[in-house]
Amino acid sequence: TYSAQDSVYKVFDLKNYTMLYSISDQNVQEIKISPGIMLLIFAKGSGHVPLKILSIEDGAVLQSFNHPIHRNKKVDFIEQFNEKLLVKQENENLQIRDVRNSELTEVSKTDFMTPSAFIFLYENQLFLTFRNRTVAVWNFRGELVTSFEDHLLWHPDCNTNNIYITSDQDLIISYCKADSDDPLSEEKCGSINVSNILTGKCLAK
């Protein structure tokens, strides 16, 4: 929970609703949750953004560091996936940083444009991006793994609430635009498409 008046985040145990610990810092801009850890994103400094990785269980600081950024450019997103930190600024390359050893991988801004949404696939160590009705699968080496042959989403600005990923993380089920050869498909209705995440093949619709 968050108290805007006091600038305090409180973390509770959902088993018995007891408060585990609190985080009090007016400079915290955003918090990202990843299995077992929590990423605190602080207000930008001069040419960097301060970050802290905490243990969710007890709030202990596991790592604290500054990630360099371009001072006059908007930060499109900062995302945490286990030990990988994804940072993208406006009109800049995607940066994938391994927080264990500070190893940095960059993906060209022409290959990776800022998506409207993400889904992380923890079992497969991959992530899905959604942009302009299209879905793509990436690995953490910055390589495009899959683009889909017949999976054009119905909504241009995708909301991940409309996307279903199977528990094995091998299939994606979405409400998509119907066959483009049908002149009435745009106005009438779409189709529910089932595609393989690793191959991009459409299995059913």
From TrEMBL:
Domain of life per record: Eukaryota
Record Pfam families: DUF7899
Spell out the InterPro entries in the cross-references.
DUF7899, WD40/YVTN_repeat-like_dom_sf
> Which PANTHER family has this protein been placed in?
OS05G0482600 PROTEIN
Q: What is this protein called?
A: Uncharacterized protein
